[in-house]
């Protein structure tokens, strides 16, 4: 299509509507913000969404015997502290999510990497081992 034809089909209504939806879409009350301390949850605004997804995943599906851990990079251009920069990947800026899947690809559980996992690591277990143990 030519640019003239695209301009004729352009309707600003949809873009403006999505901006309004995103502006007013909230999952947590900002006045309930937790104090930033040692146990601060960087995903506190979306924690209810992730908890509900995990509950629904577990409710409607029982995992099979063969499970796999998967690391997914979700492209993200916004501003968050835990966004990863990986120059060798096509998605330079992304959010890393660890998923527990079965052989059919169904996601049974997931965990967003929100920065250093040093609080989950112990003397006998690395942060990666702790993530795998938490998901299984």
- Give the low-pLDDT segments: none
* First and last CA, distance: 50 Å
Helicity range: 25-40%
Instruction: Sketch the major β-sheet.
Output: 4 strands, antiparallel
Q: What's the number of helices?
A: 4
Strand percentage:
15-25%
Structural class: alpha+beta
Order of helices and strands: HHHEEEEH
> Which shape, going by the Cα principal axes?
extended
Radius of gyration: 19 Å
What is the strand tally? 4
Mean pLDDT: 79
Walk me through the topology.
Layout: H1 3-9, H2 12-24, H3 47-60, E1 67-75, E2 84-85, E3 93-102, E4 107-112, H4 127-135
Antiparallel strand pairs: 1-3, 2-3, 3-4
Detailed description of the structure:
With 136 residues, the protein is an alpha+beta fold. The protein has a domain at 41-135. It has helices spanning 3-9, 12-24, 47-60, 127-135; strands at 67-75, 84-85, 93-102, 107-112. Strands 1, 2, 3 and 4 form a four-stranded antiparallel β-sheet that branches.
Question: How do you describe this structure in short?
Answer:
The chain has 136 residues and is of the alpha+beta class.
Give descriptors for this structure.
single chain, 136 residues, alpha+beta, 4-stranded antiparallel beta sheet
